[in-house]
Amino acid sequence: MKVNPSAPPAGKDAASPRPGAHADDAASNTGTSGTPSETLQLRKELGLLDSIVLVISIVSGSGIFISARGVLQYSGSVGVALLTWALSGVVSLIGAITFSEFATMIPVSGGFYTYISVAFGPAPAFVHLWVNIIIVQPTMQVVNAYTFGYYVLRPFFPDDPPDAAIRLLAAALIVLLAWINSRTVRVSVALQNVLMIPKLMILAGIIITGLYYLATDLSPSYHHPFHHTRFYLPALITAFYQGIYTYDGWNNLNMVVEEIRNPSKIFALASGVSMGILTVVFVLTNVAYFAVLTPEEVRTSTAVALSFGNAAFGVLAITVPVAVAISALASLNGQTFTQSRLVFVGARQRQLPKFLALITIKRNTPAPAIIFMTMVTLVMLGTTDVYALINCSSFSRSISRIVATSGLLWLRYKKPEWKRPFKVWVVLPVVYLLVMVVLVTLPAVEEPVTVGVALAVIASGILVFFLLASHTGHSRRLDEISGRLYRFTQILFQAMPETPYETGSSCS
C-alpha cells in the first residue's frame, strides 16, 4: 500500500479512502456510464457506547476466568501475581492509547495490518496477516468457545465434563455466531450490548464478595504475599504473557474503524475508557480470588471462577458457570464481528483471495470472510494444550506490535506533515515498544518450543508471500482457479465487491 505523500488517508467522515480499490471492482458495481448504480459498503453502525461495550466485551471474555492460574504459576507468589495484573493492564492501556493515533490518522479497517502496510509495505503486512489468521485470531476464539463449553457443561458432571462434549458444544457456538454475524451487523451489536449485563454482574459479584472476605477476615493468601516468588526473569515475563493475553482484544476496535461513526472524535476516548475500566476490574477480581482461595487452590484449579463460586457463593454457585459462559459468549461474538474484517481488508488489498472481499448485497456483511475465519477456528479447536496456545499467540502478537509501533514512530519521522486528529505523547509508544521487545526476547529461554513454533509460522508467512501473495508470484492457473471460486462465492452468498468511493487522498 502506498500513501499519497501530501496527506494520509482521512476517514469516511472526510471522504475516507478504501485502499486496494481496483478497476475491476469498480466495473462490477457500475453501469455503462461508469457511475456506481448503488453504494455497497460496510455500514457505520458503532457509536461511542457501542465501541466501549465492544472492547470491554471482547477483552473481558474467558481470560479473566482462566489466566489467574497461569499468572500465579509463573510468578510464584500472590504479591507478584497482582503486580503482574496491574502492570499488564497499564501496558495494555498504553498500547490502546498509542494506536488510537494510528486509527485517527489512517481510519481504514484492518488494524495493525493496515498500519504496517502503510509504514513498511506489503511484505511485512502480509506476514502479520498470515500469523493472525493461522495463530492469533483463531486462538482467541478457541479459548472463548472452549471456556463456554466447559462452564455450560461443568454443573452436569461431578468431575470435569468430557473433552469431546466441550469441543462439540464450542464448535456449535462458533458456527451459530458466524451465522448471526453473516446475517446482520445490527443484531450482532445488539447481542453484544445485552450480554454485557450478566458479565458485569458476575464480575461485580466476585469483587464485592472478595472485598467482604478481606474486610471481615484477612485471607491466608495475604499473610506473606511475596512468599515463593520466582526470582527468574524469563518466568516472570512469561507470567506477563498470561496477563497480557487476558487484556488483549483492545486492538479489535482498530480492525473495524471504518464502521465507527466519527472515529476521529470518539476512538481514543473509547479505547482509554474501556481499558481503564478493565484494568481496575481485573486487578480487583484477582484480589477477590486470593481473598477466598489459597494460592495452592488457584494454582491447581482448572476453573478458578468456579472454585471461587463453590467456596464463596454456596447454593448460588450455579450462577458462576452460567455467567462465565455468557461472558465467553459475548467475547466470542465480538471477535467474530471484528476479526473477519482483517481477512476482508487483506483480500481487498489482494493479499488474500479476492472472493474474501465480497459483501452480501442485501445485508452489507462480509459473509465470505466470516465463514473463512470460522473454518480456520474450527480446525484450531482440535488443539489440546490451551496454555501453550496462549503463549504462542502472545509471542506472535508481540512481534506484530513491535513492527506496528515502529511504524508509528517511523511515520512520525517520515511524514510529520500528516494530519493527526489524536497525537499521542511520543514517550508512550517508545515505552510500549521497549516492553514488547522484552516480551519477545526473554520468554524464549522459558518456552523455547512455543517460541520456535511461533517463529516457524512467521517464517512460513514470508515464504508464502514470495510464492503466492506477491503479484509476481501469480500464475495463470492460480488466477483461473481464483476466478472460478470468486464467481461461485458471488452466486452462493449473493455478494458483490465493495463500491469504491472517491477521496482527497489516496491509498493505492
Number of strands: 2
Largest sheet: 2 strands, antiparallel
Work out the helicity level.
55-70%
Termini Cα gap: 6 Å
- What's the gyration radius in Å? 23 Å
Give the ordered list of helices and strands: HHHHHHHHHHHHHHEHHHHHHE
Number of helices: 20
- Kindly estimate the percentage of residues that lie in beta strands according to DSSP: under 5%
Structural class: mainly alpha
**Which sequence of strands runs across the widest sheet?**
1-2
Unreliable sequence segments: 1-37, 501-508
Estimate the mean pLDDT confidence.
Answer: 80
Shape: globular
Structural notes for this entry:
The chain has helices at 23-28, 48-59, 63-75, 78-105, 112-120, 122-153, 163-183, 185-216, 233-247, 252-255, 263-292, 295-300, 304-312, 319-348, 367-380, 386-414, 427-441, 443-446, 448-469, 476-493, and strands spanning 358-360, 495-497. With 508 residues, it is an all-alpha fold. A two-stranded antiparallel sheet has the order 1-2. Helix 6 (122-153) packs antiparallel against helix 14 and helix 6 packs across helix 19 (448-469). The longest helix has 32 residues, at 122-153. It is globular.
